[in-house]
Amino acid sequence: MSTRPVEIGGSLVDLAVQAVRNHIRDHDLKVGDSLPGEGQFATSLGVSRAVMREAFGALAALRLLDVGNGRRARVGAIDGSVMGASLEHAVTTSQISVADVWDVRRTLEVRIAALAAERRSAEQAEQILALAEAMVRDQGDMARVTAHDTAFHQVLAAATGNVLFAQIVRSFAPQMEVAVPKAWETRHAQEEKAGILSLHRRIARAIADGDSGNAAAAMEAHFDASIGDHLR
Amino acid sequence: MSTRPVEIGGSLVDLAVQAVRNHIRDHDLKVGDSLPGEGQFATSLGVSRAVMREAFGALAALRLLDVGNGRRARVGAIDGSVMGASLEHAVTTSQISVADVWDVRRTLEVRIAALAAERRSAEQAEQILALAEAMVRDQGDMARVTAHDTAFHQVLAAATGNVLFAQIVRSFAPQMEVAVPKAWETRHAQEEKAGILSLHRRIARAIADGDSGNAAAAMEAHFDASIGDHLR
């Protein structure tokens, strides 16, 4: 059926993918550094240009390479969208539940809150406070609340100084775009909404104060208060 | 330079990728279900076969599709190797440090230990105890210790019943294959090795006893005891 010489996952493409990864490692390449072209790799590995093109395609899909229009491939920056695509696919196809994602998020966010309190810059503390206030200000506008809420959690993750926390949180963003408005809709009572908003304020305040214990406790309370909405 | 009609990341391939993802969602497809061929998608979307082939290649690289030799593409199962490739790339290219990975791992593993104690089956409890004993038995054989240690953490993650924890832990496996023997080499003193081994036993015992507080505390102690090795 296929005219493709070797399928993705076939041994030649796998070998070509591994060869490019080895090249990056052996030459100690960093993000943005350019790589030899497909043709050069094909010649040196003794594989066809078509195999090499598939390998570059797979590496680009995984964001290990950044392949722009008509220019040389460069080493790619880690990008939560790769894990985000996995996650969204797994939820869509019922391989994992929203409750599963929620538990993993909660686990990471509590640690993130504690670390953010210890390591945030003065600027990040201001940003986090401002986002918590913006959520209160725009509480009537679902799209804005969702955007502020997503940004709030991303700035916290960035404030840990650990890029891996930040990228994992980024991978949750597509889920949040669905979950936050849904949760908000189910919060009919004004006092329920006020509770969630005040927890964001409490987290922001604890982080600004450098109080990691309180930041973690407030984040736990936030997840406890919101879990019902997501699993209703 | 390239003869490729549209680069990965170009709008047509992106559109084709999204169309396949929408097809999976709209038809409520599950893992193993087969999809229409590249040709059929190309026709219905009005894009070239080459664009469609790149889209399928990208989806296969992300394990959203399982593309075998010469048969129809099927919906793929979530696979920690995708996040694992991201992670390894980010460490190799110095975008994240081993300490960053370590902190994320610790955060997740402590929660996993607590959940495993609550949810493990009798069979899983036996497996976990057996792996802790196997580590002691094979302590002179680095390759075996590494394999048992990796399996130990993977069975714990599986015992949570949350596939996402299990897949994230799986993504750490390539890192562990390097880190565990390295850490083991630096543990010259016999008592240091004995300490690590007895912590694995303590975790296993707490999980068998269904004692989530003790399981989490033992896992924290494990990470505290091992952190020095990794960051030396």
Question: Helix and strand succession of chain A?
Answer: HHHEEHHHHHHH
User: What number is the mean pLDDT of chain A?
Assistant: 88
**Number of individual domains of chain A:** 2
Chain pair with largest interface: A-B, 63 and 63 residues
What fraction strand of chain A? under 5%
Helix run count of chain A? 10
Strand ordering within the main sheet of chain A: 1-2
> How does the helix and strand content of chain A classify structurally?
mainly alpha
* CATH architectural category of the largest domain in chain A: Up-down Bundle
Supply the CATH superfamily name of the largest domain in chain A. GntR ligand-binding domain-like
* CA-CA gap between termini of chain A: 46 Å
List unreliable stretches of 5+ residues of chain A: 1-9
Report the biggest beta sheet of chain A as strand number plus sense, adding barrel if it closes.
2 strands, antiparallel
CATH topology of the largest domain in chain A: Four Helix Bundle (Hemerythrin (Met), subunit A)
What's the total count of β strands of chain A? 2
Please give the radius of gyration of chain A in angstroms.
22 Å
Shape field of chain A: elongated
Which features would summarize this protein structure in a list?
disordered N terminus; two-stranded antiparallel sheet; 2 domains; 2% strand; mainly alpha; homodimer; Arc Repressor Mutant, subunit A; 2 strands; elongated; Four Helix Bundle (Hemerythrin (Met), subunit A); 232 residues
